[in-house]
């Protein structure tokens, strides 16, 4: 069972089951726990090969046991997402933990990933269970519908789920409208039906001050 203690610590209660978590994110535990390092951020050959090609480093560990384990990372805000058979796409740096029964892998993000310097792949989590994702400040969940597509600054993007189509756009973004941007600017446009998670702080990108 996933539960938050405050907004920056995740507590996971286990009764012999397991959880996948970002390597090094465990801050405390009680009871009896066993830790195992997993290869890469995804499962299977595709996950390992694609991450090796792009040079991404996302090390995940499996924690199994009886008791409670607490996780945190750089005092980031933690947000819980419940999956009901659907798939969540999340930036690798924003992934904290997931139920061990959920399938993790890699998904192609096209030029958006390249614009951020994060490679061309992002982490996917699929199945039934809970996922904990991190954000710099409390995440905001925005609804995308057929009538209301959404455009997001790539530095603020955290994750998305649902039946969404992504397109990558270059040109003017929010800051360049006011002469505050630097270098080439990028946007992500979402169309369809689903949810997009954004953070109220922008990570640095190689695309300039977007």
From TrEMBL:
Signal peptide: none
Superkingdom of the organism of origin: Bacteria
Pfam families attached to this UniProt entry: AIM24
PANTHER family (UniProt xref): ALTERED INHERITANCE OF MITOCHONDRIA PROTEIN 24, MITOCHONDRIAL (PTHR38074:SF1)
Listed name of the protein: AIM24 family protein
Natural source organism: Streptomyces mutabilis
């Amino acid at each position: 069972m996933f539960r938050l203690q405050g907004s920056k610590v995740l507590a996971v209660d286990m009764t012999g089951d397991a959880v996948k978590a970002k390597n090094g994110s465990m801050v405390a535990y009680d009871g009896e726990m066993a830790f195992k390092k997993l290869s890469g951020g995804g499962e299977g050959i595709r996950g390992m090969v694609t991450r090796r090609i792009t040079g991404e480093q996302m090390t995940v560990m499996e924690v199994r046991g009886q008791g409670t384990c607490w996780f945190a990372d750089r005092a980031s805000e933690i947000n819980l997402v419940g999956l009901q058979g659907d798939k969540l796409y999340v930036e690798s740096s924003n992934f904290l933990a997931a139920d061990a029964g959920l399938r993790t892998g890699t998904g192609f993000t096209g030029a958006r990933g390249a614009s951020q310097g994060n490679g061309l792949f992002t982490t996917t989590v699929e199945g039934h269970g809970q996922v904990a994702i991190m954000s710099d400040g409390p995440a905001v969940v925005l609804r995308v519908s057929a009538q209301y597509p959404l455009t997001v600054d790539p530095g603020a993007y955290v994750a998305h789920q649902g039946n969404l189509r992504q397109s990558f756009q270059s040109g003017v973004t929010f800051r360049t409208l006011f002469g505050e941007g630097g270098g080439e600017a990028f946007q992500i446009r979402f169309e369809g039906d689903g949810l997009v998670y954004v953070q109220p702080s922008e990570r640095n990108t190689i695309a300039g001050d977007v």
